[in-house]
Design a protein that fits this description.
The protein is an alpha/beta fold and 282 residues long. It folds into two domains: 3-135, Rossmann fold; 143-147 and 154-162 and 195-256 and 270-281, UDP-galactose 4-epimerase, domain 1 (Alpha-Beta Complex), CATH 3.90.25. The protein has twelve helices and nine strands. The strands form two sheets. The chain has a seven-stranded parallel sheet, sandwiched between helices. A two-stranded parallel ribbon has the order 7-9. Helix 3 links the parallel strand 4 (66-69) and strand 5 (96-102). Helix 1 (11-21) packs across helix 7 (169-181), helix 3 (78-92) runs parallel beside helix 4 (113-126) and helix 9 packs antiparallel against helix 10. It comes from Pelagibacterium lacus.
């Protein structure tokens, strides 16, 4: 069995490959990346794979049995890029694809959802055996703001009292490895989320507890939160998207009370307190 992993140099891809190396021989893993040089430290074979260059995809997938398709980071281009690699996989005779989609993709209000639905449809039409991992929110999406919140004296957002069932990238990577190396997952769609949920008020309280400082949560209107993000260097379009995601979270888009993720990894998902502690250590 040879497993190729797209987005190998990304944050999720790197963790996934390290965990995959603990389950199968490195010789069975191929890292796919636009820049092979950036993947040279992964300890596995590396092949150039550019979603925009189908000829590189044909070469990259030659002799591959299973494709771990980590969704592209280029929002707005994902559906086309994913279609390109699915077409190349079919051409190359890839036997199975595991895809990282979005929690409740078919009903989610998040602007990220439509491209994931298009990709899930493309997988169905391809005829290739596949498994869909509908990943929930990464805890790191909020944890990255913790040092700044401590410095500023408040954690800000627009999520109101919405509950967030996040898990760490390591949790999601471990689930993907379980599916890639296990049996009985073909044709299944998994809704994956953390075991426990929290509000941003509760996140701020945990930060306060661990730092010994009063770090309250301040809920802002969407446009004001976007302006705050822009003021700290977040590009305008991305700042607007992040603020919109928070509003969706306020309406329940990031909540899920199933336990499929912990079921796949065979342990509870990483507690919020642990993620906060890791963020504070830097």
């Amino acid at each position: 069995m040879t497993i190729a992993v797209t987005g190998a140099t990304g944050q999720l891809g790197r963790i996934l490959i390290e965990k995959l190396k603990q389950k199968i021989a490195p010789e069975q893993i191929v890292a796919l990346a636009r820049s092979a040089d950036k993947a040279a430290d992964l300890g596995v074979a590396v092949r150039e794979a550019d979603y925009e260059k189908p000829d590189t995809l044909d070469r990259a997938l030659a002799g591959i049995d299973t494709l771990m398709l980590i969704s592209s980071s280029e929002v707005g281009k994902r559906a086309t890029q994913h279609q390109n690699i699915i077409d190349a996989a079919k051409k190359a005779g890839v036997k199975r694809i595991v895809y990282t989609s979005l929690l409740h993709a078919d009903t989610s209000a998040l602007s990220l959802a439509p491209e994931h639905v298009q990709t899930e449809t493309a997988l169905e039409k391809s005829g290739i055996v596949h498994t869909v991992l509908r990943n929930g929110w990464y805890t790191e999406n909020y944890a990255v703001s913790i040092p700044g919140a401590v410095q500023a004296g408040a954690f800000v957002g627009s999520a109101g009292d919405g509950r967030i069932s996040s898990a760490t990238r390591a949790d999601f990577a471990e689930a993907a490895v379980a599916v890639l190396t296990g049996n009985g997952h073909d044709g299944k769609t998994y809704e994956l989320a953390g075991d426990d949920s929290y509000t941003l008020t509760e996140l701020a309280a945990e930060i306060s507890r661990q730092t010994g400082k009063d770090i309250p949560y301040r809920n802002l209107p969407q446009d004001e939160y976007a302006a705050v993000l822009k003021s700290v260097g977040v590009p305008e379009a991305f700042a607007g998207a992040l603020a919109a995601f928070d509003v969706d979270a306020a309406n329940g888009a990031l909540f899920h009370d199933g336990h499929a993720l912990s079921g796949l990894i065979g342990r509870p998902t990483t507690p919020l307190a642990d993620a906060v502690a890791a963020a504070l250590k830097g």
